[in-house]
Amino acid sequence: MAGPLKLATKYQVDALRNQIIKHLERDWPSTIDDWDRVDDYTHKKQSAALQSPDGSLDGIVPDPVYAILLARSCDVPQILPTAFYVLSRQPTKPKSCPASGKAHIHSRSLLGINDMENLAFGRENIACKISSYDLLDIDNWDCAGVCGGFIWTVWGEFLQTMIVDKDPLRVLLSELRGLRSSFPEYGVNLCASCQRKMADNIIDARSALFESLSDMFGLV
Ligand SMILES: [Zn+2]
Questions:
Q1: Domain region containing 41
Q2: Predicted structure pTM score
Q3: How would DSSP label each residue in 56-96?
Q4: Are residue 176 and residue 102 in the same domain, yes or no?
């Protein structure tokens, strides 16, 4: 797609350029609902690909390095926030698939120094944001029952998973989809009101996080 888009940009073929940009925006959307749909689909394809004998993700899931290069060279900045986010959750050193020897992700050495700085900046900001208590507004948790003391335990579980997975949007979505009132492993039970409040706060936190991706990666 890079070739046609560059040509369409160079020769100002608007119809072709718009069609290609629409395709890119579908892979790298700018609303959280569209993002969740794309990411669910990506994870399904990724799981299936990793089970295959080849194990390569080449051409299976959109490559953020490629998207960033295209966005920069053809002036499509609206796809950058999600492309950088996906890059930030990938390991810095690509792992090879033992079966094929192929890297699961493309080398980010193709990116320029400015893009690498944006990536590092975004990772730092996301790490700071997810480890702050205001992400889920739990510092002043108000419960008529006894949940107040449990909230920190629940929060600790979320935080640990977010740090390990480096994908807070997906971790919080999984927590939301399977939000429990009972955490027997910690001896914790949340009242119905706190469970609802936690769900609302997760929805708000995800929206705020998604909306701030441009700022987090220093793209504005
Ligand atoms: Zn409660």
A1: 2-111
A2: 0.85
A3: --TTTS--HHHHHHHHHHHT-GGGHHHHHHHHHHS-SSPPB
A4: no
